[in-house]
What we know:
Elements lengths: L4 E2 L7 E5 L3 H14 L16 E7 L5 E10 L14 E2 L10 E9 L6 H18 L3 E9 L7 H10 L9 E2 L4 E2 L1 H4 L7 H6 L3 H8 L3 E2 L3 E4 L4 E9 L5 H11 L1
Helix pairs in contact: 2-7
Amino acid sequence: MPCKEAAMTQGARYVARHAAGAGDVRRAQALRAEGFGRAGGMDRDAFDDICTHVLVEEAATGRLVCCFRVMILTGGRDIARSYAAQFYDLSKLAGFDGRMAEVGRFCIAPDLHDPDILRVAWAALTRLVDAKHIEMLFGCSSFRGVHVEAYLDAFAMLRARHLAPDKWGPGVKAPRVYRFAQSLTRHRPDPREAMRHMPPLLRTYLAMGGWVSDHAVIDPDLDTLHVFTGVEVGAIPDRRKRALRALAG
Length: 249
């Protein structure tokens, strides 16, 4: 029986655990398809077979409410194996020495907006980061749809405050991209609008000192715009680390 990690709020309304087999992975794939607007289908690819899948379930009913997958890399020399490497030139990150974890396909059931779901997911990820001695988290943070106009304030804020340091900055590789760092030099973001349109997962990364690529990939297959996102674990503010570890129990 897989070990469950309980939420620290609302009387353990949600619990997180690792997938126990193919059936759990299929449940995650179905939820991902729903999250990407393909209800009734399955979202799957070759990376599913080499990742650890984390499920967040409603404790009372067993309903799957959130899922994500994690690929552990021994260091930057392995980064070409990652999902993100299909879309971004990550050659600079090949020089990163520490252990890395790619977090992908993060999805919350579209009809649910309970912030405790995200908290429980982060508690599970914090446990994994500590257990595996991860020094960098990375992945693709997705905006719904492929029309940039709705997200100009969000992209302008990313440009102004959260671009990757030069030593790690991802280069352009995908055939269709939106170069917001070049395009929005004169756009002054409205902070409220920017945060309203920022994906919840990306907001959490940014609160931990995360950074993003200077461009967004236009991905019509998943009907998303996504930015490469990195978080150096050692650079997370101590107060935020304490809060995450308290949540993880």
